[in-house]
Write a structure and sequence with these properties.
Number of helices: 7
Order of helices and strands: EEEEHHHHEEEHHHEEEE
Number of strands: 11
Helix content: 25-40%
Largest sheet: 8 strands, mixed
Distance between the termini: 24 Å
Radius of gyration: 18 Å
Strand content: 15-25%
Structural class: alpha+beta
Amino acid sequence: MTDDDAPYPEPIPAATLVIFRDTPAAPELLIVERARAMAFAGGALVFPGGRIDPADRMMSVAHSGDPDDITARIAAIRETIEEAGLPVGLNRVPDAATLAMIRADLHDNQPLGGLLAEHGLALDLDQLVPFARWCPKHRNMRIFDTLFYLAQLPDGAPDPIVDETENTRVFWQSAQGVLDDADAGRVTIIFPTRRNLERLAQFGSFAEAQAHARAHPVRMITPWIEARDGREYLCIPDDLGYPITHEMLDAANRG
């Protein structure tokens, strides 16, 4: 069996949260830098997120709606608390001490549902706006089926704090700023992140991004390779709101 004939790995369900902080110049997004030792996207800039846990799925049964969507929203909220210490998607912003306890307990693998109940908190899943779904296919690599959501930084939220495990840095920057740094070689971004940043750079506020997201369907994006004028390109659909839908294959960072 050749590499081209080998089966693709089973996709790992995951969720990501794109958090907006509106500023006079341009919206800033919460960015984390992954540790270089990580097997997937090591050293790259990404949005907070990660794989969906069984506890996220168990917690979803208490909420109405599509189970996969509800589960992904819960995972995105949990991962953002774990990775950046930001309480997005809750009914209120807890005080610093409570948030620190919740984060520490999540790192000890305690389920989010019990921790929220213990501290008189609840989820507010409507704060999350569906934005995209990506499932790139790579043989001999992990494949993530990732749902992306948008959310606005709540009033009174604390400054983000990096978890210093999977990530080494957390910061706010505009979408165009990240793209400029990547083009200058100062940072690394992978193909899905670049396409999403290009899409996000179109908006002057969270409200604009939210309206755009609601006007476009969320359909799974699996990039494909296509020959054009004798060159190979990595391509995505052209009807999902992305201003740039192809990149030369030899220049694309696929993770």
